Amino acid sequence: MSKKKWSLILVVLIVAAGAYGINKMQSKDAVSEEETMETMILEARTVEERLLMTGVVTAESEILKAELKGEIAEILVANGDMVQEGDLLFVIEPEDLSVSIAEAQSNVDTAKRNLDQAQVDGGQSVRNQFLRAESSYLQSKLDYELQQQLFDLGTASETAVTSAKQAMLNAQSSYISAKADWGTYSAKEEIASLTAKVLRAEETLEALLEQQDGAEVTATLTGVVSGLDLSIGDDVGMGTMLVEITDTENLMVEASVSEYEIGKLSVGQKLEVAPIADDEAISIATITYIAPKGTISNADTTFEIEAVVEEKSEGLLVNATVNLDILVAQAQDVLAVPYEALITNGVKAMVMVQKGEEFMPIPVEQGVKGDLYVEISSPELTAGSVIQIPSTSIANFERGFMPPGTGGGTGAGRNGGSK
User: Fold this and answer.
1) pLDDT tens across 206-223, in order?
2) Residue 380 is part of a domain; what is its CATH number?
3) Same structural domain for residues 105 and 42?
4) 248-263: per-residue pLDDT in tens?
5) Of 129, 76, 20, 104, whose CA–CA distance to 242 is shortest?
6) Could you tell me the residue range of the domain that residue 149 belongs to?
7) What is the pLDDT of residues 280-292, one digit of tens each?
8) Quick check: is 302 in a domain?
């Protein structure tokens, strides 16, 4: 065989080997691409969007303070005790009030006399006071002028002149004040003012008489006692803290909600409450208040909400931080796919649906967005449709789309879960 023929055979063999290698590589790539794809059977399910946040447990509490000066005679509770509204907590023995009571009684008598006089004379006493002040001023003025003349004659001392002048000035001040009182006098207003003075004086006297018998301090609400730091024999003054009572049965929850989420909440909405240390101890609360005005901090705006705990679990403590779980949207018996099955560019969304031997892109409308699944709808989709779920985004990029969460798509920033 000639050298030329051998060369031709060699070229044919090389081409054949190259074609075989390329075919094997293409087969391998096809298998690799096929292995990166998963499929699912589309079926109806329930999809829930839930809002997760933290809050703080609060409760009504009252601090009881001493309303008199005295000494602690009896203490009938201890920290941690559960008390009912009206229960006796302390007895305080007051200090000697005899002098104060006498003064208060005198003030009552004086106020009543003034009121009686005003009701009888209808302002005559005010007019008489003005006339007396006027007469006194005129007389003191004459006395001063006389002393000045005598001083000029050398029969009166400078001290006498000075004294007469001061007396005249004092009388003049009283005259001006009495004249103003008479000029603005109203019998009705004076009687109303004097009546109010009588009532205040009587209230003061009554309070002192009650204190004289000792003070019994009772619980103002039902709750747990705390903050007690007193012993029998301790002195207390007006306003001294005695004890704090906290209503641990009727609890509230407070939380701050982002301006992006507040529109999903409404008064009357239910939420689940669980201590951060025990997610299984779930209590149920109802939103009772949503702040109409937000609070701005570091360019973020939040709104305060309050919820009343209605079904209380064990372990829910006042001032404790809790996890809140709020169902904000739910769709039942709807078609839904994992977010990984969505192909989106941030505006349009579609899924790959099997049509014969091929998978074709089908546009879809999105509904409720859960944590793992999103509700979808399309006239071309039914329960039982086969959906392709790519485990890589290469195919999506080749089509000019981006998977959820990689470019601000609808899958970003989700809350909640799905069933």
Assistant:
1) 877 776 666 788 999 999
2) 2.40.420.20
3) no
4) 889 999 999 999 989 9
5) 76
6) 99-210
7) 889 999 999 999 9
8) no
Domain boundary pick from 176, 210, 244 = 210
Do 38 and 122 fall into the same domain? no
Gap between the Cα atoms of 98 and 100, Å rounded: 6
23 part of a folded domain: no
